[in-house]
Specification:
Blueprint: H1 4-10, H2 16-32, H3 40-52, H4 63-81, E1 89-93, E2 104-107, H5 118-128, H6 130-139, H7 147-162, E3 176-178, E4 190-192, H8 197-224, H9 226-239, E5 241-243, H10 244-253
Antiparallel strand pairs: 1-2, 1-5, 3-4
Helix pairs in contact: 2-3, 4-5, 4-6, 4-9, 5-7, 5-8, 6-8, 7-8, 9-10
Length: 255
């Protein structure tokens, strides 16, 4: 049986064409597995393939890099667990996917959302920086693996300040305009209102300050819950994938 509600929660904002693509992928997976029916597992794997790309188990990492990736993903998950406005963690993987991802943490909202609050955006930034914070604390230095996380977090911070009026210093003004009503944050195409050098400098200052605050917050969470972080990472190194129930049990019980 297919749990349509669960699939709907995993695919917010997907078009009919996107959903058709997922079902086509699920059918291919079922055929490869010799199954006569598409199962829930096939659909969920198809959703993950669309989100993060196909599994690349042939991409073999050295033990040191595997450890770094495990702690990176555990950092994302643990920070998300302790951010009250972050979507719950559904799955953590230490398996490379797509062209660049060496692991990933899947978060899914418990209901479909159309609006996002300032507190939720701050938590998104904090979670994005959680992997980098874990690398810094456990491995002693950060790596280039946090590039996409930094790009996403910075884009959210800039949008909060320049599009949503969520910064007291800059005020309730929109300095960016979307070029299409169909574009969404992050990764939107935008035009910028002409800014004076002083205002542009202040915007950059506020973006850096917001990022610095959330980075410090992520590091504090990691340091306060280091035992949980190590337990999650160690489990990932052994079994490569962790379910939401297993993660929540570890994150909630070990401090």
């Amino acid at each position: 049986d297919i749990d349509l509600q669960a699939i709907a929660l995993r695919t917010p904002g997907f078009s009919g064409a996107d959903l058709a693509n997922i079902m086509n992928e699920a059918a291919l997976l079922a055929a490869r597995h010799g199954s006569k029916q598409i199962t829930q597992a096939h659909v969920e794997e198809a959703v993950e393939k669309v989100f993060a790309g196909p599994e690349r188990k042939s991409r073999r990492l050295g033990e040191k890099e595997r450890k770094r990736v495990a702690y990176h993903e555990a950092g994302h998950a643990l920070v998300a667990f302790h951010c009250p406005n972050a979507p719950p963690v559904t799955k953590i993987s230490n398996i490379p996917r797509g062209k660049a991802a060496l692991g990933y943490t899947l978060q899914l909202p418990e209901e479909e959302r159309y609006l996002v609050t300032k507190s939720e955006l701050l938590d998104r930034i904090c979670v994005s920086l959680g992997g980098r914070a874990a690398e810094k604390i456990i491995m002693g230095e950060v790596s280039s693996g946090a590039q996409n996380d930094l790009e996403m977090a910075t884009e959210i911070a800039r949008s909060m300040i320049c599009r949503f009026g969520m910064n007291e210093k800059i005020g309730p003004v929109a300095l960016f305009r979307e070029t299409s009503p169909f574009l969404r944050v992050p990764g939107f195409s935008q035009t910028t209102e002409p800014l004076s050098p002083e205002l542009a400098s202040e915007v950059d200052k506020q973006v850096r300050q917001l990022m610095s605050e959330q980075n410090a917050r992520a590091q504090k969470i990691i340091e306060e819950h280091r035992n949980s972080l190590e337990k999650v990472a160690e489990r990932l190194l052994v079994q490569e994938i962790m379910s939401k129930d297993e993660f929540r049990k570890i994150a909630g019980e070990i401090e």
